Amino acid sequence: KSFPEKDLLHCPSKDAVEAHFMSCVKEADALKHKSQVINEMQKKDHKQLWMGLQNDRFDQFWAINRKLMEYPAEENGFRYIPFRIYQTTTERPFIQKLFRPVAADGQLHTLGDLLKEVCPSALAPEDGEKKNQVMIHGIEPMLETPLQWLSEHLSYPDNFLHISIIPQPTD
């Protein structure tokens, strides 16, 4: 009754929510591991991942999700970082592009590097005042934080790093 159809995606059933969640997890794994991890899992692993999330069973969820967060020791991180940037000031629902966690010279990319390339308007000019806050899980991480670390530790259950750009509060 009075569901805000213009603002929220209306899912007709739990099965639709599960399908959307698994689709996001698969997309994130395609970016991180070329889908190798999710494809090696069995259907029961997919179900355990979903049931652990649905039933607030941290141990059940992480027994499977841990595999999606690993990468070979000889690599410095994931192939690409699964992220979405949300802004209140644009009509686009989100920004999502391919972005590697490690630069060609071997240096780890930071949150600031990502924003500089993908959303430069979110950053304060060097001589100007800060107009936006960059938020992940309700906190404002330092722009010098390595993107790989953020992806491993602050990704949402769908394995994406959801970054919100909000106007700086005036109070």
What would your notes on this structure say?
The termini are far apart. Helices cover 37% and strands 9% of the residues. The protein is of the alpha+beta class. A 3-stranded mixed sheet has the order 1-3-2. It is globular and about 55 Å long. Helix 3 packs across helix 4 (58-68). It folds into 2 domains: 14-69, Orthogonal Bundle (Serum Albumin, Chain A, Domain 1); 83-166, Roll (Ubiquitin-like (UB roll)), CATH 3.10.20.90.
- By secondary-structure content and strand pairing, the structural class works out as alpha+beta
- Fourth CATH level, the homologous superfamily of the largest domain: Phosphatidylinositol 3-kinase Catalytic Subunit, Chain A, domain 1
Question: CATH topology of the largest domain, what is it called?
Answer: Ubiquitin-like (UB roll)
Strand order of the largest sheet: 1-3-2
Pfam family, one: ATG5_HBR
Subunit structure: Conjugated with ATG12.
Membrane topology: Peripheral membrane protein
GO molecular function: Atg8-family ligase activity
Give the gist of this structure.
This protein is an alpha+beta fold. The protein is 37% helix and 9% strand.
Descriptive labels:
171 residues, alpha+beta, Serum Albumin, Chain A, Domain 1, Ubiquitin-like (UB roll), 2 domains, 3-stranded mixed β-sheet, 6 helices, globular, Autophagy protein 5
Write the layout of secondary structure elements.
Elements: H1 14-33, H2 36-40, H3 43-54, H4 58-68, E1 83-87, H5 111-118, E2 132-135, H6 147-154, E3 161-167
Parallel strand pairs: 1-3
Antiparallel strand pairs: 2-3
Helix pairs in contact: 3-4
